[in-house]
Amino acid sequence: MNHPTKTCNKCKERKPIEEFHINRSSLDGLRNDCKRCRTTPSDGFYSVYYLPEHNYVGMTKHIKGRMQNHRKKGKTTEGYKIIGTYDTAIEAHYVETKMHLEGYEGFHYYETKGRKVG
Alpha-carbon distance 44 to 72, whole Å? Predict the structure, then answer.
C-alpha cells in the first residue's frame, strides 16, 4: 500500500506526510518544512570561529552578522576561520570555552578580581 509522501524544502528528503505539520493555508494542507527541520535552529548549526589578528575565539549562529558586529567594534575580521560547526549551542560553547581555557581571547561570562573565568 502506497503512503502519501512529500519533499521537505529544507532537508530535501522525501518523507511520509505524517512528518509535516498542518498548514491549512497551503495547497496541500501541510507545511513545506518537515517536523524535524522545523524544530532545528534556523541556520541549522552553530559556528566556533577564530580571529587570528586578535587571538580571539567566539561562537555564533549567524557568522556574517557577528563579523559585521566585530568590525563595528574595531576588530579586524579578515582571514577569520571557522574552527567547527555544531548542531547545538552546548557543543559549540564547550569547544569555545575549552579554547578560552587554553589561552585564546574571547567573551568571558564572569570576571572575578581581575581574573577571567569561563
Answer: 26
Distance CA 50, CA 53 (A): 9
Grid look-up 587571538 returns 55
Under DSSP, the state recorded for 2 is: P
Where are the chain's structural domains? 5-39, 46-117
- Per residue in 42-95, pLDDT (tens digit) is 555 888 999 999 999 999 988 888 999 999 999 999 999 999 888 888 999 999
H or E stretch at 37: helix 35-39
Total Cβ atoms within 10 A of residue 114: 5
Classify residue 68 by its DSSP letter: H
Q: Nearest to residue 107, comparing CAs of 66, 62, 65?
A: 66
